[in-house]
Amino acid sequence: MGGHRDKIKEPMSWSDENEHNFIEILYEKVKSNALQCSTFTKDEWGRINATMKTNTKMDYGVDRLKGKWNRLRKVHRMFSELLGHTGVTWDPNTNKVNAVEEVWQHFYTINKSDYKIFKREGCKHYHILGEIFSGTTATGGLGNASTQLPTNSEEERQLEDDFLNGGVHVHVETLDDEVDEVPKTRRREEIGTSGERRRKEPKISKSDKLEACMAQ
């Protein structure tokens, strides 16, 4: 019985600093294409654990780091679903989510404890989590990006394309003096699945498109 008890890992605390450090490591790994499908290889997890041990002086172990990875991915997905709901806005500078009580009550039926945290604290690493998890998470539907006007049909098709080919990350513009972002060199761009920056094409009317096709 003692041997079985020894295999049970006790939970370890995650300070804000250690979580910040872990997210930085994940970001660098994802940007270096170390991600295999939706996770890392066994050897890569070992290297991540070694880096965490060096940086934080704490040996979380691979299993706990994987658990934290899954938890962060869940947080990103849930917060994306919240921001995608009609009428919900979020100020990334104050980290405050604005929604009527009826909306909060709806999300409380899904996961009361987590959405209460979002209501109180927002999601402080949402942008960088989007860069990490945009290709490994999927939300339950399409919605309007917070702080933006309702999408037109062209924008809706773009959102649908992003959703079908990867994860959905609700993009919110931030100010240049935004603080506590990870990492400091983060590019301000909408998260897509191709890894390339998306640029809005000039709007062309259907008649102009038809004429262009006929002229070819």
Automatic annotation (TrEMBL):
Biased composition (Basic and acidic residues): 181-216
Source organism, top-level taxon: Eukaryota
Region annotation (Disordered) ranges: 176-216
Transmembrane parts of this sequence: none
Pfam families: Myb_DNA-bind_3 (PF12776)
Myb/SANT-like domain segment(s): 13-106
InterPro entries named in the record: LIMYB, Myb/SANT-like_dom
Residue ranges of coiled coil: none
Protein name in the entry: Myb DNA-bind 3 domain-containing protein
Lineage: Eukaryota, Viridiplantae, Streptophyta, Embryophyta, Tracheophyta
